[in-house]
Amino acid sequence: MSNPEGFSEIRDLNLREQPNIVLINCDDLGYGDLGCYGSTVHDTPALDRMAAEGVLLTDFYMASPVCSPSRGAMLTGCYPARIGFDSFDGMRVLFPGMGIGLHPDEITIARLLNDAGYATAMVGKWHCGDQPEFLPTRHGFDQWLGLPYSNDMGIQPDLYTPEERVELSKKLGFELPEPLRIPLPLMLDEAVIEAQPDQATLTSRYLQESIRFMRDNRDRPFFLYFAHMYVHLPIYVQEQFAAISRNGPYGAAVACIDWAADVLLHELAELGLDDDTIVIFTSDNGALARPGEGSNAPLRANKGTTWEGGQRVPCIVRGPGRIAAGIECSAMATAMDLYTTIASWCGVNVPDDRIIDGRDISDVLEGKTAESPHEAFYYYSGSSLEAVRSGKWKLHVYKSGHYGSEGAPTEELYDLAADIGETTDVAADHPVVVARLRQLIDLARHDLGDGVTGVEGARCRPAGRVHDPVTLTTFDPSHPYYMAEYDLADRG
Hints:
By secondary structure, the chain is an alpha/beta fold.
């Protein structure tokens, strides 16, 4: 952690005891996609300024390399396996009409704050279950405007011809699923208000709802969870951003994300709430990193993997008077820590009747310590325990195959301090380190389980389940949809 000259302690500004919290979570934004993280193709002046006024974390991890488990973990402060969110009847994420979701007994950060008197709102992507029992309004949010799952889960063209589908299924060894033919629902609280919406307008609509919520609750503490649609595929973006992009539609979506942050920060200042609000910016997993689009540089690999590029993501935290300004922090931290840390800032106790994996990192973010509270961080792909990090060392013990094919055991050790890109396996040079990390792996297997070895976790809770689930929408050829079928076939 670097400490700017002249900064010794957080200023005493007679701050509100219960600060407002704005949590911004992007979808598939890569580690190297922001200017402040080294991008040379994306201009992100608002987020760069936010980083200069707060803390930029270099070693911040999501608990999964894909969205449903990542989001469930962040909202509950628990590893996905802890809450039954590691696998969804064999699928890595939730799909429309599945009877699985975040268990009603789980206590989200929104529920904690709502019970403590906070106004709570969510805008954007949920992806923790689309049945009524699992929606945001059942998990502590007073209101919600957004999509129940990914924006590629509407009606789109097929990526393949029937002949290509048969041939690819043969190569993969399993039948490639047919594309969805269910209209993409836009939800207001628990009702579908639009199907197949104009995706290019959604960020502006989310901002309008966010501004209204902040203005309505300026005199009481509030929690706003802003879950972007961008940069998940397909990318539909307004022309004003496309016109300035140096990186095609992807760069335009990043520009829109930056603009949205600027709007929210500007509104907080206009309302006189700047000093009373902590703003957190992050991403749910790494970028797909297709050529010429997203970037996880200098990390290895991409979304869906347990290499660093799959789970190490940008994270910026800004809170004038509370959060140290201009600091780059290399302490290992996780999105699960946001649960415990936000609760600490807001004077709310975390539940003591269950295991919470997140740790309070407020001292790290306030510049009081450079030490991570974690002895270890575990990398899971679905139910498979694939790697562990402790300090600067990362040990891989299993690697999943591509497209659901069978994976294989491994033993690869990387020094992330010297080799952030995981290019050189040094396991043979450090047998004592490998042995210690193997012991940590065994502890995690006993605690959280491991699908590779067949070990069931001793301290895991079930996901929520309902009988006879139904989809939120069905296709009606007589309905005046904005688009009966989105014209982009891209899927993430």
